[in-house]
């Protein structure tokens, strides 16, 4: 273990921001004095003594300022998950009432890790899977396939208030299993949406339905409100998609439109379903709900150039580029917009996730715009040249004001794939980066795996924790193996943070792992951390 000194020769020994390289573990404190780096070989050591409150440091690449560092992220658990072929964990959900962690994703592996009494062979080329892990013991309780003879892709999951689990995705299987009370029993188009409920007491399928029209329908996100109603969002090409009478937009206006659907599972009915889009292609990537049961969707639209996306009380107009991000808020019965606005610049912009809190709405994604609107920014400038940079934008709930908006990235491509809020005032973003300097600068050096030990053009996974009120970054994590690493989803609750993703690296050391090593080409990757306030 080595301790660095600052320019005055003073030693610094306290940790707040943790950068995790699973071959090398590093802890970094940014404060009013200077920085240090502690290197360990595959061990976890956390010091919370003599912690110093963060103060403004010199700007990173002249455009990033880190302030108010006030929490530590402690690694608890990491594991591979998969077989000899390609596997990916696409979503993760923390059970707030049942001590369970649910992961879902896709697999092409014949030897995928399954628990007893489950279908032992994949039915199609790409099958979905669901796995449940005990949050305390880290024991794999259940692992099983979801799907038919075609391709089946679970992309989102959520626990309801009783602790049972819903999984949603899309399928082209014509033999996808549905229950007797399904809203739709047969696949009507090339791709249809599926919605499955798992009873966590016996791990059996309690409900399964297909949803869709005669063309392709793709789901991207699901969430559940305080009354156990389900909200689904994605993109559809089906003109006969099951929209409801009186919905905000009853007819599709382009080749592909976004959709928002609310389902009451107790009555087994579609409460409302609406299209949302202009004359070009429109995509919804994520959905969030507030305490008043207003629904918010975000994604990206190619209707910006024709200015045909439905807008109301917009903060920004469309850019001149071909696609922009957007956010749209709907009233509780889905009959009208509360507001809808473009969010973008002169390049392409893609919002990938949304986090709705009591007073604010946060969206995150990635952008190719060097003129994106910034305010109270963690990073003011676009620093990648012609590539992509992450962005995080926070609005008040009414959609009348941008609270803060920031770039997030380094000198190479950076992608934010997920954003979540927890119940402790943290906003968590996650994704992948090709930037060597995403958390470092000439002044604040971070020891990295030497380039000669890594494959070129690979990505590293990252997580960053922001303070909701101020928009400052509290903590940051970098997962850096010797090959491709990415995080697709993240969830947080009661100081716990869990990620889901994929890796091609074979040198990530597991902590209490379900699976110790990479079994194939690409394996799923699960990691868990504790966010500890100082």
UniProtKB/TrEMBL annotation:
Keyword flag Translocase: no
Keywords: Membrane, Transmembrane, Transmembrane helix
Transmembrane segments: 12-30
Record's protein name: Beta-propeller repeat-containing protein
The organism of origin for this protein: Methanoplanus limicola DSM 2279
């Amino acid at each position: 273990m080595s301790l660095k000194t600052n320019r005055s020769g003073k030693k610094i020994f306290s940790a707040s921001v943790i950068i995790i390289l699973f071959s090398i573990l590093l802890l970094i404190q940014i404060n009013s004095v200077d920085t240090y780096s502690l290197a360990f070989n595959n061990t976890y050591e956390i010091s919370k003594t003599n912690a110093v409150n963060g103060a403004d440091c010199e700007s990173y690449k002249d455009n990033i300022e880190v302030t108010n560092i006030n929490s530590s992220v402690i690694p608890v658990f990491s594991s591979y998950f998969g077989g000899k072929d390609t596997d990916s964990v696409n979503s993760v959900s923390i059970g707030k009432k049942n001590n369970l962690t649910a992961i879902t994703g896709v697999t092409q592996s014949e030897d995928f890790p399954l628990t007893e009494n489950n279908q032992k062979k994949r039915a199609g080329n790409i099958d979905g899977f669901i796995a449940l892990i005990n949050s305390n013991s880290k024991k794999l309780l259940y692992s099983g396939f979801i799907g038919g003879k075609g391709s089946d892709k679970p992309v989102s999951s959520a626990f309801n208030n009783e602790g049972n689990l819903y999984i949603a995705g899309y399928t082209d299987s014509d033999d996808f299993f549905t229950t007797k009370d399904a809203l739709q029993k047969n696949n009507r188009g090339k791709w249809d949406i599926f919605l499955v409920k798992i009873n966590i007491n016996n791990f059996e399928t309690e409900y399964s339905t297909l949803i869709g029209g005669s063309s392709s329908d793709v789901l991207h996100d699901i969430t559940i409100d305080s009354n156990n109603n389900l909200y689904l969002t994605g993109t559809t090409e089906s003109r006969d998609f099951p929209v409801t009478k009186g919905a905000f937009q009853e007819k599709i206006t382009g080749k592909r439109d976004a959709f928002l659907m609310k389902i009451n599972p107790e009555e087994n009915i579609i409460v409302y379903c609406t299209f949302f889009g202009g004359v070009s292609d429109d995509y919804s990537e994520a959905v969030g709900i507030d305490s008043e049961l207003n629904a918010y969707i975000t994604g990206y639209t190619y209707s910006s150039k024709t200015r045909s996306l439905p807008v109301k009380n917009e903060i920004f107009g469309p850019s001149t580029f071909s696609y922009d991000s957007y956010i749209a808020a709907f009233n509780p019965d889905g009959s009208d917009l509360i507001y809808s606005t473009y969010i973008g610049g002169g390049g392409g912009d893609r919002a990938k996730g949304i986090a709705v809190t009591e007073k604010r709405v946060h969206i995150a994604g990635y952008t190719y715009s060097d003129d994106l609107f910034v305010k109270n920014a963690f990073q003011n400038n676009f620093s990648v040249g012609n590539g992509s940079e992450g962005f995080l934008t926070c609005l008040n709930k009414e959609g009348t004001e941008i609270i803060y908006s920031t770039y997030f990235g380094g000198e190479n491509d950076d992608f934010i794939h997920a954003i979540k809020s927890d119940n402790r005032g943290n906003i968590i973003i996650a994704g992948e980066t090709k930037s060597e300097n995403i958390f470092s600068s000439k002044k604040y050096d971070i020891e990295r795996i030497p380039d000669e030990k890594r494959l070129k053009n690979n990505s590293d996974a990252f997580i960053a924790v922001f303070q909701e009120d101020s928009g400052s970054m509290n903590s940051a994590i970098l997962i850096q193996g010797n090959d491709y690493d990415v995080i697709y989803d993240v969830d947080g609750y009661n100081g716990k943070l869990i990620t889901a993703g994929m890796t091609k690296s074979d040198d990530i050391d597991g902590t209490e792992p379900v699976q110790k090593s990479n079994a194939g080409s690409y394996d799923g990757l699960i990691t868990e951390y504790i966010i500890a306030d100082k």
